[in-house]
Specification:
Layout: E1 2-6, H1 13-24, E2 27-30, H2 31-41, H3 44-55, H4 61-72, E3 81-84, H5 90-102, E4 109-114, H6 117-133, H7 144-158, H8 160-167, E5 171-175, H9 180-193, H10 219-231, H11 242-261, H12 266-276
Parallel strand pairs: 1-3, 1-4, 2-3, 4-5
Helix pairs in contact: 1-9, 2-3, 4-5
Bound molecules: BIS(adenosine)-5'-pentaphosphate (AP5) and magnesium ion.
Length: 277
């Protein structure tokens, strides 16, 4: 799975990326973290980025594109990755499209975390206070003054990516105002709905909506096809026992009932609206 987490500073990209790493076993590629490491190590890239980062501006596109291009080639990124904080400009997004095309890789989705500005300020202030309380060094850009500049840079240079990915039908928007755990659950749900990750067995799960082939079929049949797709290339599942088959039939009935009540999901609605806009 390859996804991008998009959102303003403090929206929870890093927090969610780490949770997704735990859940799906893929790597987090954070340009912010890589640049901070370069600054700390005093590399040429770090020297170039230091003052820009401290002032809340964006590091030049060519610098971050090169960093990401090299990083994607590392063996640990082969199974997939979460891009956290990249791309941040339309030229970066276009460069990423080219890179992925060249490497024969496909982007599954861009998950936008939407959070009110007042909450962003609060979150960044809390993070700074907590870091200080632990006796650790506070990020140089974690002040209200720099945050205002980071937000301005986000609005001017990064927000256009919402339109960019919406047009390409990649954008999925999540309410980042929810509690951390709820945001993770929602990201998992929408990634499962588009088939980027395996769906967890749940009575409430509606059928994945990106696969028109499953629409309108009996749930049992749709279930079979979905199982086929998700087990492709893996070991065959064991044959079920009779009681398990009876339980399966009962579950299928419940799913059928639930499917008849199913309503379109908000995240998909937002995406469609956007895509039309
Ligand atoms: P980067 O490191 O990417 O920072 P950022 O995007 O500016 O934002 P943050 O890391 O502050 O926020 P986050 O969204 O990760 O939120 P977090 O999970 O930490 O970039 C830093 C700088 O590097 C840039 O300004 C730029 O100069 C440069 N740079 C980086 N990439 C670049 C690029 N591609 N191009 C050019 N320049 C680049 O959460 C924040 C706090 O909120 C935490 O304390 C967390 O616990 C809390 N929190 C998270 N979620 C929730 C929730 N749901 N409810 C309550 N609290 C929450
Ligand atoms: Mg971050």
């Amino acid at each position: 799975m390859r996804i991008i987490l998009l959102g303003p500073p403090g929206s929870g990209k890093g927090t969610q990326a780490q949770r997704l790493v735990q859940r799906y076993g893929i790597v987090q590629l954070s340009t912010g973290e890589m640049l901070r490491a370069a600054v700390a190590a005093g590399t040429p890239v770090g020297l170039r980025a230091k003052d820009i980062m401290a002032s809340g501006g964006l590091v030049p596109d060519d610098v971050v594109v090169n960093i990401i291009s090299d990083r994607i080639d590392q063996p640990d990124a082969k199974r997939g990755f979460i891009l956290d904080g990249f791309p941040r400009t339309v030229p970066q997004a276009a460069a990423l499209d080219e890179l992925l095309k060249h490497k024969h890789m496909k982007l599954d989705a861009v998950v936008e975390l939407r959070v009110n500005e007042s909450a962003l300020v609060e979150r960044v202030e809390t993070r700074a206070a907590e870091t200080r309380a632990r006796g650790e060094e506070v990020r140089i850009d974690d002040t209200s003054e720099v945050l205002i500049k980071r937000l301005a840079a986000y609005r001017a240079q990064t927000e256009p990516l919402i339109h960019y990915y919406s047009e390409r039908r990649k954008l999925l928007t999540v309410d980042g105002m929810m509690a951390i755990e709820a945001v993770t659950r929602e990201i998992g749900r929408i990634l499962a709905a588009i088939g980027a990750v395996e769906k967890k067995a749940s009575k409430k799960s509606p059928p994945a909506k990106r696969d028109p082939g499953l629409a309108g079929r009996a749930p049992e049949r749709a279930g079979k096809s979905a199982a086929k797709r998700t087990t492709k290339g893996r070991a065959k599942p064991k044959k079920a026992s009779r009681p398990a088959l009876r339980a399966g039939k009962r579950a299928a009935k419940r799913v059928k009932k639930a499917a008849s009540r199913a309503v379109p999901r908000p995240a998909k609605k937002v995406t469609k609206k956007r895509a039309k806009a």
